[in-house]
């Protein structure tokens, strides 16, 4: 196998990324946004017999100004099936070939479950797995609605007759800046970390068409906004990024309506997989119930490996 760094253009990377319905963290635009905010980013390609078999995007940082760290989050992207031994060789190549001065460490959080992860030793796992809920949007609307948990479906029916008006927002920051402010306030209140400030606005303009990067919906009731949802698009997949609701929005089940309408729009845009984001039944039980009620697949990833 051979390792190449930063030798693909955006179109070729996006082609592989879309074919795999890969995660946001492995999207070309994600790395470009990080670079624009001063965060190092490196993109690797592994080739066997002239064919690309894996892509890996790393985000870097320095610890105490001495140690270089590179994180491959929700990757690598496997572009063809590989055995565990072949994957182990890919990981070794990536670790040894990082274009960073020593001392350095490479961390991987592969898009695989504990049962399917191959090529990484369980002795090298340093963080337990992250759990998310994914929805297969290749299903019909009828199939998706039938899969909804009963109470979730009843709330959707109630929201559909509650007099809510749904608006699709554009990519002009003036239209969604208030939602980002709500997200920042929520994170500060709960002590939750997330993407760097400014990332979402940067990502919205990462491609020529805003329709390729984001979908933001707002629900109004009697002329007042009561809820909103923002989704980031990456190839043939999308990630639920931000949600906000006030008391009225919660009483009227506005998020059920917003998510249901978002699913239809995402399907129209060719999205095949929707990642609803992490579920934590202890810290955020209500949010977890909302995501689980969609009937999506609970995906617990293998964890972070050194």
Structure description:
By secondary structure, this protein is an alpha+beta fold. It folds into two domains: 2-120, Aminopeptidase (3-Layer(aba) Sandwich); 132-300, Aminopeptidase, CATH 3.40.630. Helix content is 34%, strand content 31%. The protein has ten helices and 15 strands. The strands form three sheets. It has a seven-stranded mixed sheet with strand order 9-10-11-12-13-8-14. Strands 1, 2, 3, 4, 5 and 6 form a six-stranded mixed sheet that branches. A hairpin with a 2-residue loop joins β11 (224-234) and β12 (237-245). It is globular, with a radius of gyration of 20 Å. The model has no long low-confidence stretch (mean pLDDT 93).
List keywords for this structure.
7-stranded mixed β-sheet, Aminopeptidase, 306 residues
Overview in brief:
With 306 residues, the chain is of the alpha+beta class. The chain has helices at residues 10-19, 28-36, 84-97, 141-147, 150-160, 173-190, 199-204, 247-251, 254-268, 285-292; strands at residues 2-5, 41-48, 51-63, 67-73, 77-78, 104-109, 125-127, 131-136, 164-169, 214-221, 224-234, 237-245, 273-278, 297-300, 304-305. The strands form 3 sheets. A 7-stranded mixed beta sheet has the order 9-10-11-12-13-8-14. Strands 1, 2, 3, 4, 5 and 6 form a 6-stranded mixed beta sheet that branches.
Report the C-alpha radius of gyration, rounded: 20 Å
Topology, number of strands: 15
Rough outline: globular
Task: Return the CATH architecture of the largest domain.
Answer: 3-Layer(aba) Sandwich
Q: State the fourth-level CATH superfamily of the largest domain.
A: Gcn5-related N-acetyltransferase (GNAT)
Discrete helix count: 10
Fraction of residues in H or I helices: 25-40%
CATH class of the largest domain: Alpha Beta
Determine the structural class based on helices, strands and strand pairing. Answer: alpha+beta
| CATH fold name of the largest domain | Aminopeptidase
């Amino acid at each position: 196998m051979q390792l190449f760094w930063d030798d693909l253009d955006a179109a070729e990377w996006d082609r592989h990324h879309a074919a795999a319905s890969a995660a946001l963290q492995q999207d070309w635009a994600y790395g470009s946004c990080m670079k624009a905010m001063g965060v190092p980013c490196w993109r690797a390609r592994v080739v066997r017999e002239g064919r690309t078999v894996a892509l890996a995007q790393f985000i870097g940082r320095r610890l105490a100004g001495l140690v270089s760290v590179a994180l491959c989050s929700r990757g690598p992207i496997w572009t063809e099936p590989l055995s565990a031994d072949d994957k182990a060789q890919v990981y070794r190549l990536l670790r040894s070939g990082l274009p960073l001065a020593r001392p350095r460490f490479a961390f991987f959080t592969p898009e695989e479950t504990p049962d399917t992860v191959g090529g990484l030793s369980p002795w090298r796992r340093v963080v337990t797995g992250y759990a998310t809920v994914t929805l297969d949007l290749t299903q019909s609307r009828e199939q998706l609605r039938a899969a909804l948990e009963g109470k979730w479906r009843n709330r959707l029916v109630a929201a559909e007759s509650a007099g809510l008006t749904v608006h699709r927002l554009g990519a002009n920051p003036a239209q969604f800046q208030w939602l980002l402010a709500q997200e920042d306030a929520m994170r500060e209140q709960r002590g939750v970390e997330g993407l760097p400030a400014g990332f979402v606005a940067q990502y919205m303009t990462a491609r020529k068409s805003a329709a390729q990067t984001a979908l933001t919906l707002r629900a109004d009731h009697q002329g007042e906004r009561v809820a909103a949802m923002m989704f980031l698009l990456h190839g043939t997949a999308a990630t639920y990024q931000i949600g906000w609701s006030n008391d009225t929005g919660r009483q009227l089940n506005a998020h059920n309506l917003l998510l249901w309408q978002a699913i239809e729009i995402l399907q129209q845009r060719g999205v095949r997989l929707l990642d609803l984001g992490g579920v934590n039944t202890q810290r955020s039980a209500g949010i977890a119930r909302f995501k689980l009620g969609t009937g999506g697949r609970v995906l617990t990833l293998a964890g972070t490996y050194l």
